[in-house]
Write a structure and sequence with these properties.
The protein is built from one helix and 37 strands. The chain is mainly beta and 406 residues long. Strands 1, 2, 3, 4, 6, 10, 11, 13, 16 and 17 form a ten-stranded antiparallel β-sheet that branches. Strands 18, 20, 27, 28, 29, 33, 34 and 37 form an eight-stranded antiparallel β-sheet that branches.
């Protein structure tokens, strides 16, 4: 497999709750079980619970434990709010409502699922969210009222009144990023190694992506179509000396639309430094005048330029370098590992990026036509990086080394 699926790591935090970390693909991420809980507390009009995830997460579904009403059929929907409680923005309502038969009909108690898959909701790392289970029938069943067993949230009695000493029994499923896998390409700043892709042009709207694992500090190029010492037709995703990721672009008339200024530097820059010797996923999207920089699926910077920038340069597209001021020598070469480089001819949504960044893509795939170039960098040998679209093979220059983990 190209990307190593992380293992389920269960750590029991307290009676009735489990935190699940390190998931790849759609998986159970939070599990607050019913053990030791009161399972006959009326839902009334609504019940809520706040929570946090430990990485950018494409939300799939939330399950909540419900005991049916004794004699009557009941129905419910679920709402998701920004922040603690329900005073924040309503992010969405579950794509499904749920109707539950009565106890007298033989309907058992259990976890009931509310799907958010089609809403494209991406939850941010360590950010608070609150779901509210809303009764839409005349009568209600019961929920599982637990002690303070889940450390990252609170129960919201009646859906709006915080109760920090209790939690609701619930489960959350979603898709999170995992680190790249066993094969990649090692670039070295000491030898000035890089990959030259040649004549790939920059689409009007685009997404560029790469996994990187830097091994030293300093200004370093990651993905570029850029000449040093030339203001026109700049295009580069790079690391700053602080190891923050940054992006810059200009058009053929050297206009940058405000993406850079002498006083404020790069407008598209990550909020914190990328770690050394650890994998990070970077992506930049352009939709008209709107640019967004993502780190590990989280939008870290967004900027709207004053003009719609169109890149018309003929310089080569490169991984790990740019063409220097001399017009030939590499410039600010990357030192570390690079993997899964993609160029798209559309601005991908955050949900799309999170859903696909942790595993390789294959044809047939509905998104495949939007890929302009795709280099898995799992070749393992030779002096060419294969383009999965079979249009833009990359030439290895100055001896990049194929990395294969033991």
């Amino acid at each position: 497999m190209k990307h190593l699926a992380k293992l389920f790591l269960y750590g029991v935090l307290a009676c009735g709750t489990t935190l699940v970390t390190g998931q790849a693909n759609a998986a159970l991420l939070i599990n607050v079980d019913t053990e030791g809980c009161h399972t006959n507390v009326a839902i009334n009009n609504a019940i809520g619970q706040s929570f946090r995830v430990n990485a950018a997460t494409s939300l799939e579904k939330i399950e909540i434990w419900i005991k049916p009403e004794l004699y009557y059929t009941t129905s419910y929907a679920m709402e998701l709010y920004e922040g603690e409680g329900t005073s924040g923005a309503l992010l969405g309502t579950s794509a499904t409502t749920m109707t539950l038969g009565s106890q007298s009909d033989g309907t058992p108690s259990g976890f009931q699922a509310f799907s958010f898959t089609d809403l494209g909701l991406v939850l941010q790392d360590s950010h608070a969210y609150t779901f509210r289970l809303v009764r839409i029938s005349q009568y209600s069943g019961a929920f599982s009222h637990c002690g303070n067993v889940y450390p990252d949230g609170n129960e919201y009695w009646l859906g709006y009144s915080s109760d920090s000493s209790h939690d609701v029994a619930f489960r959350l499923y979603g898709t999170q990023a995992s680190a790249p896998g066993a094969r990649a390409l090692q670039l070295s700043s000491s030898t000035g190694s890089y990959v030259d892709v040649g004549s790939l042009s920059i689409p009007e709207n685009f997404t560029i992506e790469a996994w990187v694992k830097p091994e030293s500090a300093g200004t370093q190029m990651i993905l570029t179509k850029d000449y040093g010492c030339v203001s026109a037709n700049q295009f580069r995703l790079q690391l700053e000396p602080t190891n923050k990721a940054a992006f810059m672009m200009s058009d053929g008339a050297a206009a940058d639309g405000g993406l850079w200024s002498a006083s404020l530097s790069y407008k598209l820059q990550s909020s914190s430094a990328l770690p050394f010797s650890a994998w990070s996923h970077l992506a930049v999207t352009k939709s008209g005048n709107v640019f967004t920089l993502y780190v590990n699926g989280t939008a870290e910077a967004t900027y709207t330029t004053s003009v719609n920038l169109l890149h018309s340069g003929t310089q080569p597209f490169q991984m790990g370098s740019r063409v220097g001021c001399s017009g030939t020598a590499p410039d600010f070469t990357f030192n570390g590992l690079i993997d899964e480089v993609r160029v798209w001819s559309v601005a991908r949504t955050q949900a799309d990026i999170v859903a696909n960044m942790s595993s390789p893509l294959f044809s047939p795939n509905p998104a495949w036509p939007d890929l302009k170039g795709y280099w898995r960098l799992d070749d393992g040998s030779g002096t060419v990086a294969r383009d999965e679209k079979n249009v833009y093979p990359g030439t290895l220059v100055n001896g990049p080394v194929w990395f294969i983990a033991n």
